[in-house]
């Protein structure tokens, strides 16, 4: 996993997480798994599964951030950079990008904190 921190054109801080995801067929479903965060989702097609896992990971990261636990959760998960790998078990792997936009809470003209949106 890697995280890219930047600022948008309107000066909104942004963080983009790059995470490995694997896909496998389970009956009529395609199961998408982000082992790095222990997040799983599914879809009837690869496209649906991809959209579902991006949304699930995004909600997970945003919730951790809003609760003030993101740093601790990432440390507990023992993050390190991973490269996509192919598997002999019929799974396919790719790397997904999960954008996370942060909005500043401004008080008295000063940034007090940031919230995911």
Distance between the termini: 21 Å
Shape: globular
- Number of helical regions: 2
Strand content: over 45%
Helix content, binned percent: 10-25%
Weakly predicted, low-confidence segments: 103-117
- The structural class is alpha+beta
Number of domains: 1
Largest sheet: 6 strands, antiparallel
Run of helices and strands:
EEEEHHEE
Cα Rg: 16 Å
Number of strands: 6
Concise account of the structure shown:
25% of the residues lie in helices and 46% in strands.
Set out the fold topology.
Elements: E1 2-7, E2 13-26, E3 29-34, E4 39-43, H1 46-67, H2 70-76, E5 92-107, E6 110-116
Antiparallel strand pairs: 1-2, 2-3, 2-5, 3-4, 5-6
Describe the overall structure.
This protein has 117 residues and is α+β, with helices and mostly antiparallel strands. The chain has 2 helices and 6 strands, in the order ββββααββ. Strands 1, 2, 3, 4, 5 and 6 form a 6-stranded antiparallel sheet that branches. The longest helix is centred in the middle third of the chain and has 22 residues, at 46-67. Mean pLDDT is 75; it is low at 103-117.
Name its key features.
single chain; globular; alpha+beta; disordered C terminus; 117 residues
């Amino acid at each position: 996993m890697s995280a890219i921190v930047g600022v948008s054109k309107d000066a909104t801080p942004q963080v983009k997480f790059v995470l490995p995801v694997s896909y496998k067929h389970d009956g009529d479903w395609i199961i998408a798994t982000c082992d790095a965060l222990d997040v799983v989702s599914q879809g009837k097609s690869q496209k649906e599964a991809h959209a579902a896992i991006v949304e699930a990971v995004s909600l997970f990261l945003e919730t951790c951030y809003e609760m003030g636990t993101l740093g601790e959760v990432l440390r507990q998960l023992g993050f390190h950079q991973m490269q996509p790998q192919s598997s002999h078990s019929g799974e396919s792997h790719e790397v997904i990008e999960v954008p996370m936009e942060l909005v500043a809470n401004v008080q008295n003209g000063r940034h007090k904190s940031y919230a995911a949106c």
